[in-house]
Amino acid sequence: METTLVPLRPDAAGAPLYRLAKRALLAAIESGRWRGATALPSETVLAARLGISIGTLRHAVDELVAERILVRRQGRGTFVATHTTERFVFQFFHVERSDGVRDAPQVELLSFERERLDDEAAEALQRRPGDAAIAVENRLSLQGRPVVYDRLVLPAVLFRGLTEKRLRERPSTIYHLYQTAFGITVVRARERVRAVTADRTACRVLGVAPGSAVLQVRRTALTFHDKPVEWRVSTVTTAQHDYVSTLAPAA
Fold this sequence. Notes:
Blueprint: H1 17-30, H2 43-50, H3 54-66, E1 70-73, E2 77-80, H4 85-92, E3 95-97, E4 106-116, H5 119-125, E5 132-142, E6 145-155, H6 164-168, H7 174-182, E7 188-197, H8 200-206, E8 213-222, E9 228-236, E10 241-243
Antiparallel strand pairs: 1-2, 3-10, 4-5, 5-6, 6-9, 7-8, 8-9
Helix pairs in contact: 1-3, 2-3
């Protein structure tokens, strides 16, 4: 069901009006009222529907742009941001060559299986152990060299209709597929990184010697309201590549 924008009323907690406007816009995006690459109504129209000033509305939109949920296009308006290869590389893919060269990875699908959530994946996805899941394994190469072994686990209930063929033949990134085919927009990710010894599978996939030191990145991808939609464990060989993350300035 679509979310209809209605004039805002102050809430009991006394949240600033621009935050209430931001929540209303997020609810409309989440409901599918405006899909990826869809232009929003003008700021004048949105402000009138919400019963707020242009300045208050612009403050809310500015925050959503900063969070990469909306994007402004000069002379064309404000749009729901879509997941593109460029966005994936600069927001979600943190591996680059040691000399600073950063490219989009070449992705090779290794396996697509239906399974049940184990305890770790269930906790990360806020589901119950044993729930139906889809497990995907990929090898990511940079400059022709295998660098990342990814294992993704998805709650099957969120991705009904996802098949190996659909995944393999997607025209863009996997997050673009989530957004356009299943209405699931990944807005951010929570990661933990540790140094580990490559296991047998990682050695085979990445072509590294047994006992090699590698990085293990455990990521929970989150949609609106910090709802987890994907659990991913990435094994990264750092012989010629680094894991690079740009931190936002402190508020």
